[in-house]
Amino acid sequence: MLHLKIRKVGNSLGAVFPREALNRMGVSEGDEVFMVETQDGYQITPYDPEFDKQMRIAEEGMARYRNALRVLAK
User: What does the alpha-carbon distance between residue 40 and residue 2 come to, in Å, rounded to a whole number?
Assistant: First the structure.
């Protein structure tokens, strides 16, 4: 388990992540992370759940209209 420290940043609060956690998530300064509510609380992830949802919808459409897309690509 890793501990995060909450600190004042201007008029807001921010969490300070240990270098080990940042390396494991593959993020660095300036990157965005997302806090996702789960059954067990919250999860912090570098993956945008909304983008993932949109990609699943796009993949379904591409599979459904595969032949039409193949013709249009010519």
Answer: 17
